[in-house]
């Protein structure tokens, strides 16, 4: 059995530097050289394999096998989910049902820009994050806000900062699934731990949106919508994440928040209306869709929720089935026990439930075989780079963990003791700022966060949860996310302007997250003990 060395170079400083090599390599490739994500993670994989082999002394056959296991996890636990979620969206677009849904939303939104920011960017944005993620919520929401009179830059900023809280449960829970995989902790425990942090974090963004649109006057005049926006999202998100799993919290949180806010707006409106558009959308500029079109569009989300809940909930035997398991074990000199990496091939994973949902939705929408084929073709065209990135980055992460690099890094980081709780979110924030991916960041740092938690005596579920939520908060400044987000605005290839506007807010919310982590660590650590 391979024994992971703690200090393979014989020098603590050199060993820590060597263990950071994959992260430094990704930093240079993504942020410095601006290489596309799939190519950067491929090169990063090669560099990580070389360091594992020649510095840590991991046998090349075992390194290759660990990488293969990671690549399979990346394909089956990431790409299989996101691809079919994206295909559902493309089917809605091709059948015209997405336009009907969007038109209905715009027509039923109030004329007040502050309310529009929360109803559309916050509540509706979480739906697109839950379905697709990866920067698409900006691309969907910003054009709606621009149509309603928002300046392009303001629309992008509102869309980006509204998208902070839902990211960990984005793309049908993909980041949480990967975090559970690399840490070895139960999926529902990880989902619940992240939900506890997100529930507190979600109290802040609606207030930021009011301030962005109308400064302090917006907060004074529209504060009820901020309170209700936060609480209604938490009402739909937290129970599902805690008791069912990570696949649907954003979708249920979004839809419940959206419905509650629309009902609330029937009995309350701001006394002064802040309109950014001289001609309102219900003035007849938009194409009119029938009630049937809107109901059919909503039925797609209902089908998805029902199928995924029945398929993936703790009551379902489908998630416990496995045809074959690939695994490899090493001995940790740090933990003094066996650790390993594994991939269990279950044909009935969450991605398959989304595939089945898509088939049912296509039948409900009467999508022709031509439309279904075109939806698959579009999804592959949009996401082939993401498929390769998922393969390469999780393969990289599994080598990082199996070789012992993650444990060597945790070895000295644990010297911080309980103060590590302050540093823990920074790893997630930096990782996502570089990669643009919460999922990739969880894959890279998940095992490190759990190991450091055990060494420092922190509750084992809190650091990985802070890692995931910290990654969420870097999305507004991640170049890859911004590139997808600006694709439907006049800021195409001008991501730097948007990132600079978002940076102070992203840092401020990160400080708020660190405070949440400290309070949980000292006041309620038992909530994060498995």
From TrEMBL:
InterPro entries assigned: Lactate_perm, Sugar/inositol_transpt
One Pfam family named in its UniProt record: Lactate_perm
Species this chain originates from: Saccharolobus solfataricus (strain 98/2) (Sulfolobus solfataricus)
Transmembrane regions: 12-31, 37-58, 65-89, 119-148, 169-188, 194-213, 225-245, 251-268, 294-313, 343-365, 386-410, 416-434, 503-523
Keyword vocabulary terms for this entry: Cell membrane, Membrane, Sugar transport, Transmembrane, Transmembrane helix, Transport
One annotated GO molecular function: solute:proton symporter activity
Membrane topology classification: Multi-pass membrane protein
UniProt-listed NCBIfam families: lctP, SP
PANTHER family recorded: GLYCOLATE PERMEASE GLCA-RELATED (PTHR30003:SF0), L-LACTATE PERMEASE (PTHR30003)
Localisation: Cell membrane
Protein's recorded name: Sugar transporter
GO terms for cellular component: plasma membrane
């Amino acid at each position: 059995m391979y024994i992971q060395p703690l200090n393979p170079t014989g020098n603590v400083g050199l060993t820590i530097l060597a263990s950071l090599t994959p992260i430094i390599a990704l930093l240079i490739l993504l942020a410095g050289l601006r290489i596309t994500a799939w190519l950067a993670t491929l090169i990063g994989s090669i560099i990580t394999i070389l360091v594992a082999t020649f510095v840590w002394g991991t046998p090349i056959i075992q390194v290759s096998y660990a990488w293969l296991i990671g690549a399979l996890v990346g394909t089956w636990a990431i790409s299989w989910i996101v691809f079919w979620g994206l295909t559902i969206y493309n089917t809605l677009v091709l059948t015209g049902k997405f336009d009907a849904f969007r038109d209905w939303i715009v027509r039923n939104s109030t004329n007040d820009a502050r309310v529009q920011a929360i109803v559309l960017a916050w509540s509706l944005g979480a739906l697109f994050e839950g379905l697709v993620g990866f920067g698409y919520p900006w691309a969907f929401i910003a054009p709606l806000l621009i149509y309603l009179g928002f300046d392009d830059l303001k629309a992008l900023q509102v869309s980006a900062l509204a998208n902070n809280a839902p990211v960990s449960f984005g793309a049908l829970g993909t980041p949480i699934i990967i975090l559970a995989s690399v840490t070895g902790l139960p999926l529902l425990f990880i989902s619940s731990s992240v939900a506890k942090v997100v529930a507190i974090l979600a109290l802040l963004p609606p207030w930021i949106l009011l301030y962005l649109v109308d400064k302090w006057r917006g907060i004074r005049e529209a504060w009820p919508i901020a309170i209700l926006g936060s609480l209604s999202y938490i009402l739909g998100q937290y129970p599902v994440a805690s008791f069912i799993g990570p696949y649907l919290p954003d979708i249920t949180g979004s839809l419940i928040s959206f419905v509650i806010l629309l009902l609330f707006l029937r009995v309350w409106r701001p006394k002064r209306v802040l309109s950014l558009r001289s001609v309102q959308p219900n003035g007849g500029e938009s194409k009119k869709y029938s009630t049937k079109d809107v109901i059919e569009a909503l039925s797609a989300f209902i089908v998805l929720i029902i199928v995924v809940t029945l398929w993936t909930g703790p009551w379902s035997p489908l998630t416990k089935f496995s045809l074959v398991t690939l695994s490899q074990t090493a001995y940790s000199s740090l933990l003094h026990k066996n650790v390993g990496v594994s991939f269990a091939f279950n044909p009935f994973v969450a991605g398959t439930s989304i595939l089945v949902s898509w088939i049912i939705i296509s039948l409900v929408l009467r999508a022709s075989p031509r439309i279904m084929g075109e939806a698959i073709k579009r999804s592959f065209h949009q996401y082939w780079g993401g498929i390769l990135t998922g393969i390469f980055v999780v393969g990289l992460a599994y080598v990082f963990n199996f070789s012992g690099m993650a444990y060597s890094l945790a070895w000295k980081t644990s010297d911080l003791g309980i103060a590590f709780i302050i540093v823990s979110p920074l790893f997630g924030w930096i990782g996502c700022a570089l990669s643009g991916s919460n999922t990739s960041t969880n894959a890279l740092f998940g095992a490190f966060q759990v190991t450091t938690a055990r060494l420092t005596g922190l509750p084992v579920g809190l650091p990985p949860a802070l890692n995931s939520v910290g990654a969420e908060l870097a999305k507004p400044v991640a170049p890859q996310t911004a590139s997808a987000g600006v694709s439907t605005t006049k800021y195409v290839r001008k991501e730097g302007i948007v990132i600079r506007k978002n940076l102070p807010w992203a840092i401020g919310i990160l400080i708020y997250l660190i405070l949440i982590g400290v309070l949980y660590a000292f006041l309620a650590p038992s909530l994060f003990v498995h």
